[in-house]
Design brief:
With 135 residues, the chain is an alpha+beta fold. It has a single domain, classed as Nuclear Transport Factor 2, Chain: A (Roll). It has helices spanning 5-23, 53-63; strands at 34-41, 50-51, 70-82, 85-95, 101-113, 116-126. It has a 6-stranded mixed sheet with strand order 2-1-6-5-4-3, with helices on one face. Strand 1 and strand 2 form a beta hairpin. The protein is globular. This is Nuclear transport factor 2 family protein.
């Protein structure tokens, strides 16, 4: 099966849905975005990777009021790896309740599953210096 224009739209919407679910507190619906055994790698923030959808939801609940009030994703670039696997790279902007913001890059492994496209691995890379520190 070929990675079609419809697949590109579906994967891009999948990546966008993460922010909508988190910002609305619908963490019980994260299985619409991630595989059950997702690895959500937040080691760039000094934390151990989260293993599984339940761990991702629990981490969001534990963060509570420290969660961003807005997760915004942009600059989505998709590369087909195989007919059922895609590498996705996107930029994330988090807006906090106090108005401060942060920037990350999401590196996603996305799989075609019987339930549709799902992210099986996400690496979140924080941006702390301009030009990726290569200035």
């Amino acid at each position: 099966m070929t990675f079609t224009a419809d697949d590109r739209v579906a994967v891009t919407e999948l990546i966008s849905m993460h922010g909508h679910l988190c910002d609305s507190g619908e963490l019980d619906r994260l299985d619409e975005v991630f595989t059950p055994d997702v690895v959500y790698d937040v080691s760039d923030f000094g934390q151990e990777p989260l293993l599984g959808v339940a761990a991702c939801a629990a981490a969001g609940r534990a963060l509570g009021e420290l969660n961003p009030v807005g997760h915004h994703v942009t600059n989505v670039v998709l590369t087909e790896i195989a007919h059922d696997r895609v590498h996705a790279r996107s930029k994330g902007i988090g807006v906090n309740a106090d108005g401060t913001t942060g920037s990350v890059t999401y590196e996603d492994a996305v799989l075609r599953t019987p339930r549709g496209w799902r992210i099986s691995h996400r690496k979140v890379r924080a941006h702390r210096t301009p030009l990726g520190g290569r200035g």
